[in-house]
Design brief:
It is built from nine helices and eight strands. By secondary structure, it is an alpha/beta fold. The chain has an eight-stranded mixed β-sheet, with helices on both faces.
Amino acid sequence: MSDQKSGVAVHGRLIPFPASISPEARASLERQVNDDGVPLNALYAMPLPDDHAGWMTIKAAADGQYAAAVKALAGILRASVETVRTDDATIHIATPETVLKPDCAYLDFHGGALVVGGGEACKAQARMHADQHGAVCYGVDYRMPPEHPYPAALDDALAAYRYVLERHAPSRIVVGGRSAGGNLAAAMLLRGRDEGMPMPAGMILLSPQVDLTESGDSFQVNQMVDVVLPGSLMRNNQLYAGGADLSHPYLSPLFGDLTGFPPTFLQSGTRDLFLSNAVRMHRALRRADVDAELHVFEAMPHGGFQGNTPEDRDLAAEVSRFADARWP
């Protein structure tokens, strides 16, 4: 009999919401579980990768939820927005009421598990970033599966970066993305560098989906603990990849050569399913001699506490500080 042990046995137990976070953050966690403590999002199963009709149903439902969220932002967002196309890429260009950083640009890639989050949600997010930073924000409404699998989204990301480079110096561009958007931001810079494009002044990766193989420790440890993302997105990843190797750096930038990358801000939380992604990406960047910051927030699930909590405001302030330091 082998003496090798396979892991740690954790019997059924309730993981309490900690007293170490703000009351607002605790209330956010409480809203996202049933009376039995099971995360609400755990009730939803993703279709198989080849069930395109099922994915279109998921996308339609998500679009409805995003539409309601965008409607709630009416009267809050101040930036104006126009939409342009370059090659096959759609870009929402948001301009703040008062431009505090002339000639500077924020190139943003939205989240949504590589499948949803475009359209009006992407446009609203561009306006939010423009308001936050006082700089023009280019929100990339990249194509997504099942209609457009890889490399469509990455092609759109490169086209958008070229568009921004034609209008702003690289030293005045910050690239950012949350979750799936973090994947595209990093993958875009890998491919852009390989194609001879200059690096921007900085990159912001918020709970980035940089490992589509889901090989990190937190994919097991934080499973069902993350109330926002309680389980695997492997079906999404396979749908997005369209048969390509999930470990390829353009799909999982964690595994790429990160030499020459710009200063990078990474964020996650102790309850984030993607915590290992941020931790490992930070170490990979440091091994490549890249100036990288890692910010891990107490008990924060994937994407933040999704409300006006002190922790969310703290994160926003840190992001603004980092961007301000990158822009001359």
